[in-house]
Design brief:
CATH superfamily of the largest domain: P-loop containing nucleotide triphosphate hydrolases
Strand order of the largest sheet: 2-3-4-1-5
Shape: globular
Bound molecules: zinc ion
Number of helices: 15
CATH architecture of the largest domain: 3-Layer(aba) Sandwich
Number of strands: 5
Largest sheet: 5 strands, parallel
Order of helices and strands: HEHHEHEHEHEHHHHHHHHH
Distance between the termini: 67 Å
CATH class of the largest domain: Alpha Beta
Mean pLDDT: 92
Number of domains: 3
Radius of gyration: 22 Å
Oligomer: single chain
Structural class: alpha/beta
Length: about 350
């Protein structure tokens, strides 16, 4: 298709971190060995869509020197989401619907209007309904040569195995907090102390860090959710169930809440195994976490961590939120925490 030098594609994507993934795809592009479907998997707010968008720019970039250039028409319009051969589709409400997949299948049958590829990002594919996944499978079996499908998912557990086997997996991992801190300071001009705090709390998720920059209420919400958890540990069953009832009313917020609680129990487990406070994510809660690590058996802390993960899975499987949270409340250890000095 293009007789340019072997390394026309460069690993200079507008992405923070995930260097190994950028380099791997850059090598595939330069070798002309692009797959037609990729499954970009990683925890919420880690930067999957940003990564997918940069990938979309690379494949359709018009530069004859270095791709993606970030400046040509294809790069600019893809960044804005208005490029003719680029679409981003995501779940509406709870699940990606079968009608959405049918519509995109029709789009895919058409040749690209101006790009080399018709690129489709299917966001939050872990929330797609089984029928929608099934409908996509047909496209994955025999994709037209000009199609590039980029699926993003917070977890692969709910995906049909046949979907997974037809996509090249790209598992994005949390970034070192130093990478996030430096990016916040250098690219986003955040003052160093604030950047360090946000980077620490981000759990390696650049998207989360940027969200906090735009909206401080995310930090307030976090503090509130942790306070609820810490209070619940000292409360009666009845009070815990009442708390579960209240939390279940904000179903959309539950995945973030559970991801936070998961990081909290992981921290407690680390401390129970005598890790240094510097190794934990929720360092501002070290006073409470150290009490838990001292007074609760490591095995019980581990069970609490597993219970939170299980609850997250139940919610992804559309189990009744209140029932799932009630069950979780029963599995949390009982410990009365002294207030921080
Ligand atoms: Zn370009």
């Amino acid at each position: 298709m293009c007789s340019m030098s072997d390394d026309l594609f460069r690993p200079n994507w507008d992405v923070i971190g995930h260097d190994w993934a950028v380099q791997r795809l850059t090598r595939s592009l330069n070798a002309g060995r692009l797959r037609h479907a990729y499954l970009i998997n990683g925890v919420a707010r880690i930067g999957k869509t940003t990564f997918a968008r940069a990938f979309a720019q690379a494949v359709n970039c018009l530069s004859e020197v270095s791709r993606p250039c970030g400046a040509c028409r294809a790069c600019r319009l893809t960044a804005r989401g208005t490029y003719a051969d680029f679409s981003l589709i995501e779940a509406q409400g709870n699940a990606l619907r079968i009608e959405q997949i049918r519509e995109l299948t029709r789009t895919l049958a058409l040749r690209p209007l101006e790009g080399r590829y018709r690129v489709l990002i299917l966001r939050r594919f872990h929330e797609a309904s089984p029928q929608a996944m099934d409908a996509l499978l047909k496209t994955l079996e025999e994709p037209p040569p000009y199609v590039l499908l980029l699926l993003t998912a917070d977890t692969t557990e709910s995906l049909l195995p046949t979907i997974q086997s037809r996509c090249q997996p790209l598992n994005l991992r949390p970034l070192p907090s130093s990478v996030i801190r430096e990016a916040l300071i250098e690219r986003y001009k955040v003052e160093p102390e604030r950047a360090a705090l946000i980077a620490q709390l981000s759990g390696g998720r650049m998207g989360w860090a940027l969200e906090v920059l735009k909206d401080e209420s995310v930090l307030k919400q976090r503090a509130e959710w942790l306070a609820i958890l810490e209070r619940a540990l000292g409360e009666s069953r009845a009070a815990r169930f009442e708390q579960a009832r209240q939390l279940s009313e904000d179903r959309a917020g539950l995945p973030s809440l559970l991801a936070l609680w998961q990081s909290y129990w992981r921290d407690a487990l680390l401390l129970a195994h005598h890790a240094a406070v510097a190794a934990i994510i929720n360092r501002d809660r070290s006073h409470a976490l150290e009490q838990i690590a001292r007074s609760v058996k490591a095995e019980e802390i581990y069970q609490a961590l597993l219970a939170v993960r299980r609850t997250l899975r139940y919610l992804q499987a559309n189990v009744n939120a209140r029932l799932a949270l009630d069950a979780l409340m029963l599995e949390l250890p009982r410990v009365r925490l002294a207030a921080a000095p």
